[in-house]
Each structure stands twice: as C-alpha cells, then as structure tokens.
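Obj: model holo form, ligand = iron/sulfur cluster.
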Amino acid sequence: MPVKKSPAPAKKKRVTKKVPLRKAAPAKSTVAKRVVKAAAKKPGVKKPRGRRRPVGPEAVHEIFARFQKDNPEPKGELEHVNAFTLLVAVVLSAQATDVGVNKATRALFAIADTPEKMVALGEERIRDYVKTIGLFRTKAKNVFLLSQELIEKYGSEVPPSREILETLPGVGRKTANVVMNMAFGEPTIAVDTHLFRVSNRIPLAIGKTPLAIELGLEKIIPAEFKRHAHHWLILHGRYICKARRPECERCLISDICTSPEKTI
Ligand code: SF4
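Output (holo structure tokens):
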C-alpha cells in the first residue's frame, strides 16, 4: 500500500530585525586623547580650527609700537633690591603669583639681601619666611643652596650668563632669561604662561613649548623692541588677554589679532 505523504509544513517566514543605525564612535586614538588632555590642561589655549599663520612683519612692528607708546618703560612686578634678590624672587615665583611672592620677600629681603646673609639665615629660617608660597620647602632649599654656590664659585655675584645661571639650584631657562633681561639689560625673552598664551593667540609665534615660542619670537621681534618685549606681552596677558575671558574691548591690538577666541 502506497504511503500517503503528509503535506510539507509551511515555511516559516524569515523575520529580519531592523537595527537602528548607530553613529560611529569618535576615534579614540592616543594622539586624539593627548590633544583633548592638553587643551583641558591649558585654559585659554584652544586648538585653532584649521591652520593658522602668525601675523606678518608689519603687523608685528605695529603691535610692539603700540605697546611701547602705551607703556614706554614696562617693569616686572617682582620686588627686589639688587640682582641677587631678583634671582631669589624669580626662583620663588614658579607656580606662584608675584603678589604672593612680594608679600613673603619683603620681610626676607629686609634681613637677607646678599648670598652671605641668606646662608647665615639658614634653610630652616628661609623656609619660615616663604612658607606662604607654594612648594616652599623645595624653594627654600634651592635659595639656600644657590646662595652657597654664588659665594663659593662666583665671588657672591650673580653671574651675567644664562648658561651659568641655569646650573644653579632651582634656576631654569625662564628664570635665567628674566635675570639676564632685568639685571643685565639683555634682550632675552622669558616665556611664562601668559606670554605663551598671548603669542599663540594673536598669533605672533606659534608653538607647543615655551622654548619654541621663545625662539620663534626671537626671530620676528624687531631689535628695537626686544628688550621690553617679554614684559609687554606678560602684562598684556595678565591684565587684558586673560586666559578665561580676554578683555578684547580694552585691547590695543584687537584690529590686528586673529584669535578665534576674540570676543569682539
Ligand atoms: S583681541 Fe582679545 S584675544 Fe586678541 S590679543 Fe586682544 S585681548 Fe587677546
């Protein structure tokens, strides 16, 4: 007897789920992370969109001519009475405000304005005088040691050489440049956080490190303005071209500046 075939079961329809399209996640390369991190670390130094070019030579001349007209003899704001106290004040000013340093050094310099007096005071008492300043333990030690070294190697004088200054405890290139400029009248450019920001913003010299900015500015600033250039730029950054909100409405060079952070 022939076997009756049972009807084949109805084929199930294949149901394909609709998956909503998702946006590709942003690339998380190490380089991208580093850029974001660096931008977060340096308020006021935004990564410019597209490639920016420094202003040209005529604009550079005009910028410094205006700074000069406005303030012919700019002065640093760290109080000192001689080259030695200037050196000490600058060493103490790393990551601290000039106002804070001045408060501490007024009493210190009244009793110790030479390397001998500073050594006689001793590290512990120096520490007491500067304890309101950040990193005071290390700074007090450096002030004591550099005073000792000045006595032993340089006849208690501050040597007029950037290279030698940089060998002293607690003295880096920026400190050496400030001393060379203010104590010895050399046209050095000391790049602090304000100057670094301002130069990148305008932009005068563009760079990722203080040294790149220093060397860039050395190339483009006309000789007649070099001596005071770093003071003009530091003061401009401290009081006008501030990190969080530049006061562009009060800025002498707003018509020349091409910063994307310009507020007017
Ligand atoms: S215009 Fe604004 S951003 Fe440009 S230099 Fe002046 S204060 Fe700074």
